[in-house]
Amino acid sequence: MKICIVHNEYGKLSGEEIVVGNIRSLLEEHGHEVIPFFRSSAEIPSMLFGNIRAFFNGIYSVHSQRKMRQILQREQPDIVHIHNLFPLISPSILPECKKAGVPAVMTVHNYRLICSNGLYMTEGHICEKCSYGNEYWCVIRNCEKNLFKSFGYALRNYASRKKRFFLDNIAIYAALTEFQREKLIMQGFPRDKIVVIPNMIKTDITSTQSPLGDYIGFAGRISPEKGISTLMNAARMCDDISFKLAGNYDKMPELVSQSPKNFEFLGHLDSSNLNRFLSLSRIIVLTSICYEGFPMLLAEAMIHEKPVICSRIGGLPEIVEHGVNGLLFEPGNAEDLADKIRYLWDRPELCRKMGQAGREKVLREYSSEKYYERLMDCYQKAVEFQRSK
Questions:
Q1: How far apart, in whole angstroms, are the C-alpha atoms of residue 311 and residue 42?
Q2: Which terminus of the chain is more solvent-facing, meaning fewer CB atoms within 10 Å of its CB: N or C?
């Protein structure tokens, strides 16, 4: 099978970039030919009038449309697999797939199809005001803290909705969780065209009965929507326990001086050091206050046999089952989080039991083999849908 993967990279390494790279590698390992159509937001600063061009390209890009048409004519792929289209590629390429009779599958990595900023969050709180065609709220509330960006995000969502770029030209949507699938259905996306394919993780990390660990760990983007202030407040209540955070903190540099003595920022870690960081922790936490997609941190912690404490929000309870492979706490509630941390910390055998249950779930549900099986079913469904039209 020949698959064209379409993705606008964010310019900085993110979980989504890693997922796209893993999907490409997985397809090639199984003998499929992959044709990449990639752009990167890192191009924007070096472009003449880059921000203005990105603004208009996000709404409609004649250049990308022409490029997509050429790829379809020259390569004749069996499937076009869409990931991120903003801001340089744009949804204007989607009708080209339909015209060429090539089914388009889209992995829905976030909530950008139905929320202008993709997070369902503004001012530190869940916000769904953009729902049902009310994109102007992104401007009214200035969700991006930059009116130019907020207006651009709202306008491109409005244009895509009015032109029905996604609704009319995507054969199958691959949501990451059932929660995300239901959100799409509520916004008018057809139930029978949405499947759930959770992210995968490499499962080649062997079970080594790693040490119990002597700290609480967090890894990922350190930004407001991740609820880091909640974690910091919980750390103050557990001042005899060490907390370590791996990830860039350039969006919240002030936290370093505000953090308690038992709260350490390690900065970005490469993959080998990240694996070591996870294996030496006792518990991994995810304190998000927004609707996440499928955070890779959860599966990575589970494959290392670590219990997870995470927010009871969005699709996270589908991954972390309360009392089985971890615990859930009320998002933003530092006292509840501290209670859950203390409860698990004082029960080392329960930590091991939950960690083993987490690893078993990853091997059962989130392995590359399981992902490939689900993806091929998705592609087949897209082909059958295209033939039926």
A1: 32
A2: C
CATH of domain 215-365: 3.40.50.2000
The first and second tokens of residue 9, run together, are 């990279």
Most confident listed range (11-15, 205-209, 256-260)? 256-260
Average pLDDT over residues 93-99: 97
pTM exceeding the 0.90 threshold for the entire prediction: yes
Contact 194, 385 (CB under 8 A): no
Find out whether 173 and 190 touch, Cβ atoms under 8 Å.
Answer: no
Which residue type occupies 364? R
Q: Give 271 or 95, the one with higher predicted confidence.
A: 95
The tokens 């394919």 sit on which residue? Answer: 197
Domains 2-200+368-388 and 215-365 alike in fold: yes
Determine the distance from the C-alpha atom of residue 157 to the mean position of all C-alpha atoms in its chain, rounded to a whole number: 19
Domain 2-200+368-388 of CATH type 2.20.28.160: no
- Residue carrying structure tokens 């927004």: 290
Q: Where are the domains of the chain?
A: 2-200+368-388, 215-365
b/e per residue 89-116 (b: at least 16 CB within 10 A): bbbbbbbbbbebebbbbbbbbbbbbbbb
Name the maximum alpha-carbon separation found in the chain.
64
